[in-house]
Amino acid sequence: MKRDITILGSTGSIGTQTLEVISELESSRDHEFNVIALACGSNLQLLDEQVGRFEPELVCVKNEELQGKALTQLPDSTRVLSGPDGLKEIAALPATDLLVNALVGFIGLEPTLAGIRAGKKILLANKESLVVGGELVERELEKGSATILPIDSEHNAIFQALQAGQSDEVKRLIITASGGPFLDTPIEEIADATPEEALNHPNWDMGNRITCDSATMVNKGLEVIEAHWLFGLPYERIDAVIHPQSFVHSLVEYRDGSIIAEMGDPDMRVPIQYTLTYPDRYPNDYHKSTLAEVRRLDFRELEEERYPAFKAVVEAGEAGGNRPAAVNGADEALIKLFLDEKIRFGDIATGLNLILDAVSPVEEPTLKDLRETDEWARNSVNRFYEEGKIGFPRGEEL
Amino acid sequence: MKRDITILGSTGSIGTQTLEVISELESSRDHEFNVIALACGSNLQLLDEQVGRFEPELVCVKNEELQGKALTQLPDSTRVLSGPDGLKEIAALPATDLLVNALVGFIGLEPTLAGIRAGKKILLANKESLVVGGELVERELEKGSATILPIDSEHNAIFQALQAGQSDEVKRLIITASGGPFLDTPIEEIADATPEEALNHPNWDMGNRITCDSATMVNKGLEVIEAHWLFGLPYERIDAVIHPQSFVHSLVEYRDGSIIAEMGDPDMRVPIQYTLTYPDRYPNDYHKSTLAEVRRLDFRELEEERYPAFKAVVEAGEAGGNRPAAVNGADEALIKLFLDEKIRFGDIATGLNLILDAVSPVEEPTLKDLRETDEWARNSVNRFYEEGKIGFPRGEEL
Which of A8, A81, A255, B222 meets the CB 3.0–4.6 Å disulfide criterion with A39? Predict the structure, then answer.
């Protein structure tokens, strides 16, 4: 079976790893996988290499200026689109069998909706599609034949573990969390952690926002929201547990007492490959540790006092409407302030709670509502900072 | 859906737990599960209670003497059979939907074969059916529509984990082993361990043979053989790993790098219930620990020097034919001698290797061949003891 693949976000971490997996699969599978379209932001140099290697018919770049540059650099046979409209067009491309959405941020939501309307099988790594747009995505999915396969290692693990039972037999989803760099830090010291300390992630090599989110555990809160929309379970049946080794990627507890887990070395290529080949599993030669090599798997309760931002995000998910959009937008703005050393680490959680208190609730939000909430939240965070509601006490800046 | 159940070995550990599970299910499921026949050995008192509680139409006891006693004790409406022929008849009972074979020992093989010929769904806890009779069982299964669901927690875990993939995608089965009481004993001291030390099993409450087998790790060798026949994998793709907490019941490693595990508190009622309700999972209120309560899962390589008997049993499985029957019979006789303080703990492995050297190989053995091998092995073990090939050096008995 030949599969035509479109990748949105091809030059990012998940995008490049997806192309790496496709390269490996191609070498053993005789061109079963065929890349037909790529979308990226502004990394034209890497896009150029990818076009040379995979020969897609179509690419999309961030804006018209980059489109002009791309047209001169890329082969004449490559069609070049740009901007959000280009992304939507490329997401709905009739020839696409598998749509990989590895875009980072709010910009990924519209292409997901376009892909769903076009009935695509969507391999989803874009968090915002579900965190911010969960209600919209669910509404669109109900109308048609599109499906979503989660790439994220936690949700991919749950997706695999769910094959051992039926959905009404699930008691709880259990999402594992590394605990981040402050797992053993005395709680009273965490609020004053520096960016350098927060960016020191033990197991996964990720971008700055994600790494910072795994220090605050905002990422787990967002994953709880994603799991809610992906698997249709109420929030009280989605738990997170600290597992410092990140070897167990997540678990499903069934109502008979059996817990099914998916585990393995932390390597995003494995879940990426699984979504590409699903329902089949193909071999690969990625490094695989044995259990005897791993030796020990630890689990601890997630302490809410240690991770107050986690609690704020899950509360936003439970409250629903435009609130997840608010905390998601706010979180990005808060991390920027934190990395710029304008606010303390502890201000991230404070800021999220301030945003939840301040947001004007919109139930069943439209895309426009969500975009406005996102923008409002970012601006509000900066206003909180200007007003001194978050940040170092005057005179105590770093 | 109503399910008529026959239980062979109803007064043993698995048998009584099966009836306990059925009681629990009945209370919530409005007589969906109906016990129609029970077979036991000689525990007439418990059988009497079970008949009073579950009202089976038919029972089977060990021999004609007990049959006579049972006829006077049990209600007139209960038919009473006896002996191996009674077991075979009861195993093939036309009305049976689920045949639970929880017999202990060689005597369980013939009823399994009878159940297969009658096209039954067999919930199998009898080790010998596969360890000794694997080839016969496989031949019979190929002819008809019967199926086997493993009750044993390790194989039940693998059976569950196999639902997350296809059989040709399996790289390895990984059977967990508690390591038994000698996990941390200096290797050179193990051979001289006492029966009291060997019977001190940390996690599961089991009978004497099974507990002793988990100290020598013969049980894991036998489970490797069972897994070979149940799941059709070659021996080099079935591993055992030490996992002292017995929380992970076993795992399947797929060729893409994903490892799927089934875990939970060590409680045989969970796999028993799963085989009874399969493919569904019903709720229960058995105690369930959380991962945070378990805190820590350890894994270590199984050291063959520590567990020489394990190696002997797996070698018997690999060699096939009547050799597994030889080591299985020999093991029982060796354990008896050990518990009678006639031989040393280390002599169990020595005896198994002596048996493997001495056995006259029979490929594609018949039931008669297997029975003869079993008897020969038991006698040979006692001869080895008489000849001083195993046992305490003269003058050094305990």
Answer: A8
